[in-house]
Amino acid sequence: MEEFETVTLRDPSSALTATYVPIAGMVATSLSDDGVELLGQRRGLQAYVSNHKTMGIPILYPWANRLSSMGYGVDGAVVTLTPGTGGVRTDQHGVPIHGTLGGYRDWTVTTLLESQLTAELDFAARPALLATFPFPHLLTLDITLTDRTLTVTTTVTATTGARVPMCFGFHPYLQLPGVPRAQWQIETPAMRYQPVNAWGIPTGRVEQRPAATDVLGDRFIDDGFDEVPEGSVFALSGGGRRIEVHFDQGYTAAQVYAPGDDDVVCFEPMAAATDALRRGGYREVQPGESAVAQFRIKVS
């Protein structure tokens, strides 16, 4: 079994730690509160690297969730995707899912301190990445762990004359060890629900959903939303512990996921709704400029 070098950040003010693996796609494999693991381990790191089976907090880049077809067009450029090539992977229906950086090795760590980790990836220098997303740019992740809060700031800098679509996201698998799943409480803000077809692709129909607080019970949830207000807070609580996901800026869409076969809940920050890379409705980084998106996970 392959060994992966890890980086563990420590909160100066508490017993909270966060572990990242830069050479495995900058995935977060642990968020531990005095030894209590708050991230779902799923099938583990090895399965994430070898088979793209997500766990912890993976980055979904350059698109989050699914695309409705094996190709897309942006500014006159038509891109054809091939499963198994350039990091493209598909779900059970054969549609592309979660981008191309699952387990990607070539991140460069630029800052490493006790409570801060910064890493970057230069798409312009990697033809294999440009083949599936032909928009040269610098992708930077800045991660800090302070005041019982994990903050993930993503910066996309357009490095040539091409505009860069912002359709990425993250997939935090949250858990409450020692508390039965049926007793978990989830809180979601007011936002717009996007029903999907059998392939998980939005139908185009929408409906407004008010803010809600519910006990999870035995429900299976896999719902997509847009029109998520900046600053929105999602929360998972139970057993005296509360985990909040703050959509600080740049994340206007979300997926709420609670599978029936694992005790995890996901509040996924997304820079654009599912299939936006094909349908439009995303923000673009203009040539020579940068755009920032940030979310935080606060443990109390």
UniProtKB/TrEMBL annotation:
One of its GO terms (molecular function) is isomerase activity. InterPro entries: Aldose_1/G6P_1-epimerase, Gal_mutarotase_sf_dom, GH-type_carb-bd. CDD domains: Aldose_epim (cd01081). This is Aldose 1-epimerase [Segniliparus rotundus DSM]. SUPFAM superfamilies: Galactose mutarotase-like (SSF74650). Gene3D superfamilies: 2.70.98.10. GO terms for biological process: carbohydrate metabolic process. The lineage of its organism: Bacteria, Bacillati, Actinomycetota, Actinomycetes, Mycobacteriales.
